[in-house]
Amino acid sequence: MTLGQTGATGPPGPSGAGDVPATPNTNLLRDPYGNGYVNNMFQSTLIVVTTGGTTNFPNNASLQNQILLQGTLGQTLKFPNAASAGFAVGTEFRINNNTTGGIITLKDNANTTFATVPAGGFGVVYLESVGGGGVWECHALIPHGSTWGLNALLTSCQISTTSPTNSTSPTTGSLITSGGAGILKDLFVGGNLNVAGTVSSAGAINNATIWFDQCTLSIGTSLTWSSSVTMWYNTIQYQSPFAAPGAYFTFPFNLSPGTFTLFIMGGTNASGGIITWSIDGVSVGTTDTYAAGSTGRTIWSTVVTVPSGTSHILRGSMLTKNGSSGGYASVLNKMWLLYPLSLFLFLGAGLCCISCSPGCPCGPGTNH
Predict the structure, then answer these.
(1) What residues pair up with 162 in beta bridges, in sequence order?
(2) CATH number at residue 321
(3) Phi, psi of 224 (to 5 degrees)
(4) How confident is the model at residue 188 (pLDDT cuts 50, 70, 90)?
(5) Average pLDDT estimate for 105-133
(6) Domain extent at residue 16
């Protein structure tokens, strides 16, 4: 049958009427299968100016299902009793939060919050069940101001997740890129950053600093820390005796490939051993920490080659010692790698940068 401006007229044709176009005098055409045909359908919109209060929807089916929120404040929308309003499962409402900063809180008829719509957001509210006054769920659409295009999605909004793990997927809550590079200007990580692959950088990473007390020790006694005015930073970290052969310490660091200067800051003593340095398993030099008399502030340096990639492991192994040394002790403060070479001058008891490279972590005129 057809629904005219004044009501329904006539039965459908034997072959259905789906191929009959709507006319100015025909609002809706229905075929024998219950399908409706219409050129356009314009829905009325309920405009709510937010006041920070609550809007209670009436328990009737005449409620407009397109709701536009305007203003600067938030608002609570309380939905009607679905059964009293005669709603069927699948009834939809569209919530357009066009406020400037207000959060729209959606509550069911029992006054229980089931969703919120942030400023600029758009939510499709769906009636899942009529029982208990109505069970609603809200599906969020892309916020206002976001665009699709060659960049796939461009949005000024924050992308965040609230479920970092679950029992079936280790990637839930993660920001994932597949088949290409994810490019971020700034990345702020509130917890652990777990990288399954190699860490790489679009720009060169030209320095790395490694503190001895943050290294992982293999075997031997634990690391001892104490105050010493004769050492750099007035502190001393040492492991003595350092069992040999084979004892070592390691530290992971990020650095672009290339030629760097490895600086080792520490002290010498009569029981100091010879440290063999390696990067990613390739030997890059040795440091003999033995001296007949203890020297508190010493800096050794050696030119090293950092291989491809940006994730590396520095390893210091105590394999040998000077023939005059009484043991395999290691007294160190920190190690750092710099590129290009920097100009240093000894000034009094400290070492100061006079002409640091842009990547130098200390800054000009700063004591190491």
Answers:
(1) none
(2) 2.60.120.260
(3) -110, 135
(4) low
(5) 92
(6) 2-37
Of residues 185 and 115, more confidence is placed in 115
Helix (H, G, I), strand (E, B) or coil at 93: strand
- CB burial class (10 A; 0-12, 13-18, 19+) of residue 332? buried
Q: How far apart are the first and last CA of the chain?
A: 90
Q: How far apart are CA 286 and CA 284, in angstroms?
A: 7
Mean per-residue pLDDT for 330-345? 70
CB 246 within 8 A of CB 317: yes
Residues contacting residue 315 through CB under 8 Å, at least 6 positions apart:
248, 249, 250, 277, 278, 279, 281
Distance between CA atoms of residues 271 and 290, nearest Å: 6
Helical segments of the chain, H only? 82-85
Lowest-pLDDT range of 132-141, 147-156, 205-214 = 147-156
* Domain's final residue, options 141, 162, 192: 141
CB atoms within 10 A of CB 51: 13
Who has greater pLDDT, 132 or 171? 132
Taking only the tens place, the pLDDT of each residue in 1-50 is: 444 443 344 444 434 444 455 566 666 677 777 777 776 777 789 999 99
Q: How far is CA 20 from CA 14, 26, 67, 177, 201, in A?
A: 13, 10, 33, 49, 62
104 part of a folded domain: yes
**Is 33 in the same domain as 49?**
no
Q: Is 25 exposed, middle or buried (0-12, 13-18, 19+ CB in 10 A)?
A: exposed
Cis peptide before 58 (omega within 30 of 0): no
